[in-house]
Amino acid sequence: MAATIKDVAKLAGVSVATVSRAISGKVVSHELKSKVEEAILATGYRPNLAARRLRARTDDTIGLIIADIRNPFFTRFARAIDDIAKTRNQHVILCNTDENPEQEKAYLDLMEEENVAGIILAPTLLTSHKHITSRKMRPAKLQRPLVLVDRRPDEMIYDAVLIDNHAAAKKLVHHLYENGRKHILCLYGADSRTGFERQKGFDEAIKALHLAGESVAIKHGKDNLAKSLKNALAKNPQIDALIVTNGVLALKAAAFLNKAGIVVPDQLAFAAFDDEPWMELVFNGITTIAQPVGDIAREAYHCLMERLENPLKPVLQTVLKSKLIVRGSTLKARPTTI
């Protein structure tokens, strides 16, 4: 069981108030301070960082919790938030959950201990909003405002900045259909809310256009994409197009297609989400949905600052548009931007 401030006070032979003053940096005698420090070391007590920081405002620090630092979208998003914060002389505490809800909860605890001004969060798929709402982050209370990004919340109780994933996925399917593709495979992130939304948009477009479509879930952290893709293509040789729902999956899929000797786009059209620099270097460029990362970051930051200034304003959900960039991986014509 973790040591408490009472344990420290008992061992040091002082009051709890004296321990609190010593930890907070208030004036205590050198003798008492030494006793408290020795007792802290002996008990292994970890002072609450929030308590130590109560004397100072923390408007200069915000928290940023992202779901997967390996995902190029989140890498660029984190950089954009940090760049914006610097212009206002603010610091950013960055945490990566690896799509793990328990890690997310731990980092939310950390943000409370650090007493940050507010938090920008890309929640995990399995996030229990109980461990968020229990922190009294609802706008009506707002001890610590929270803005969600990229993943749509279950309830409209938080400000959120998103793109329309359904519409974006449908846009890709329609593009492939217009270029003669009729049997489309979708590989999506099984641990991502975004992946599920894009997969749902894919399914809706497939049904609306009366196409043959198949969706395969790829679990986070599992190197099963190559196996899943190989099995799907072997099971259904008629598949003539592939969509992957994020940049991490796109890189793995491109590596598999290249190694397998599959000619893109002659044998298989290939489209993805997240426009990354490397996507212009293979298959005469990969057709992709480009997300406005800079705009998402600016909107999220602005929303957080607005919430700090006006805690009781109505909850705002901002939905931004994505852009379809057509390149050689889905057609033989000269690459263009739509």
UniProtKB/TrEMBL annotation:
Pfam families per UniProt: LacI, Peripla_BP_1
InterPro entries: HTH_LacI, Lambda_DNA-bd_dom_sf, Peripla_BP/Lac1_sug-bd_dom, Peripla_BP_I
Record SMART domains: HTH_LACI (SM00354)
Keyword Oxidoreductase: no
Gene3D superfamilies per record: 3.40.50.2300, lambda repressor-like DNA-binding domains
Molecular functions (GO terms): DNA-binding transcription factor activity; transcription cis-regulatory region binding
SUPFAM superfamilies: lambda repressor-like DNA-binding domains, Periplasmic binding protein-like I
UniProt entry keywords in alphabetical sequence: DNA-binding, Transcription, Transcription regulation
Chain ranges of the HTH lacI-type domain: 3-56
Name of this chain's protein: Transcriptional regulator, LacI family
Source species of the chain: Bartonella choladocola
